[in-house]
Design goal:
115 residues; mainly alpha; 0% strand; membrane; transmembrane; DUF202 domain-containing protein; DUF202; transmembrane helix
Amino acid sequence: MTPGVPPTRRTAPRDPGLQPERTRLAWRRTTLTGAVVAVLATKSALHGGPTAPAVLAAAVCAALWLAFLGLAHRRIRALTTPPPPALAPRIATTAALCTVALAVCGAALVSQTSS
């Protein structure tokens, strides 16, 4: 027992290879979720006959998903270099804005088709 060291600090040393792998998997899951939202938005836009606003919203959803896919792919590739570089604030902000905008477009399509 090491005096002065809390019991939680006496665990095995952290493997630096695990965190980048978990982060890569998180980016992939988020990209997959965005793909599902884009597909459901397109399905919602075409259900009951396509209208111009619905098709435009579905196209915006697809464009946002493609932008997020590009950002995620860039980050996943960056995580393969040891040690992985920190996520640039510009990329983090862009990814967050793409995610929020994709959610807003999806919600707009759902509310438009439910009325």
